[in-house]
Write a structure and sequence with these properties.
Number of helices: 4
Oligomer: single chain
Helix content: 25-40%
Structural class: alpha+beta
Shape: globular
Length: 86
């Protein structure tokens, strides 16, 4: 992958991924067996553009990284240091 060659994204049903309870508590309008998340499960990185919008919004404040965040300020940056760090 262009952002990080170690990331391997797959599509899962949300019910397969075992997201944290606080994330699941924010999801109310979808069935977890019917919606998908595109993610690298091992690195806790999801691709917002290929993930249900309600799930992506719920993940925003969790330990999961949006792919864009991973690339700019998360572990996907060299040494895990944000290029914007002071």
């Amino acid at each position: 992958m262009e952002v990080d060659p170690d990331l391997q994204f797959k599509h899962y049903f949300v019910s397969e991924v075992q997201l944290p309870a606080d994330v699941l508590a924010r999801v109310s309008h979808v069935s977890l067996t019917d919606v998908e998340i595109c993610c690298d499960f091992d690195h806790h990185v999801y691709n917002r553009t290929h993930t249900d919008s309600e799930i992506a919004d719920a993940l925003r404040d969790s330990h999961w990284f949006d792919l864009d965040d991973w690339a700019t300020s998360g572990q996907g940056t060299p040494n895990g240091i944000s290029p914007h760090a002071a």
